[in-house]
Write a structure and sequence with these properties.
Oligomer: single chain
Strand content: 25-35%
Distance between the termini: 14 Å
Number of helices: 2
Structural class: alpha+beta
Order of helices and strands: EEEEEEHEEEEEH
Largest sheet: 7 strands, antiparallel
Shape: globular
Strand order of the largest sheet: 6-5-8-9-10-11-7
């Protein structure tokens, strides 16, 4: 199954779908006579079969306080072998929703139902090159985890992820 890539265009609210193959680089955008550098390819370029055990989570300052700290410039969602790229304004809404979920106190024990739904791997890319992995479980206890803090995911966040990834 080929991956689907969604790009939200900042100038309008349209979303374009392309195949997983590499496309030619877009021409630079000119603002006030100064060309801006072309966008960097969002990471990961391909969704991993297994999630990395660890990403350097401390590379993103504030990860102990916010689910998604600061302002990432792009989000790559990997679920069920599908890769989806999200940029503002959808990215901004997802970050805001994740940062306002109810936290799970550390050390709390839960009895969760069977975890049979897909796991959404959210790779947030930052302008300085750092990356944060946030895992969102769509079934069981429905936890969100950034490597330092956990929260309970709500139906709104899950629905947004499902719409963006067509799952």
């Amino acid at each position: 199954m080929s991956a689907v890539v969604l790009y939200a265009v900042l100038a309008s609210s349209t979303i374009a779908c392309t195949g997983a193959g590499r496309s030619s680089a877009p021409s630079p955008v000119v603002v006030d006579g100064t060309p801006l550098a072309p966008a960097v390819e969002p990471s990961p370029a391909r969704c991993p079969h297994d999630l990395p055990v660890r990403l350097p989570r401390e590379a993103v300052p504030g990860v102990r306080f916010d689910m998604v700290p600061a302002t990432p410039h792009v989000l790559v969602i990997c679920v069920s072998g599908t890769r989806t790229v999200v940029v503002p304004p959808q990215l901004t809404r997802i970050v805001h929703a994740l940062n306002h979920l109810d936290r799970v106190p550390p050390g709390t024990a839960y009895a969760c139902p069977a975890d049979l739904g897909p796991l959404f791997a959210l790779f947030f890319d930052y302008p300085d090159g750092s990356r944060l992995l946030v895992e969102v479980s769509s079934s069981g206890c429905r936890f969100v985890f950034n490597g330092r803090i956990s929260a309970r995911v709500d139906r709104g966040v899950l629905r947004s992820l499902q719409i963006l990834t067509h799952t």
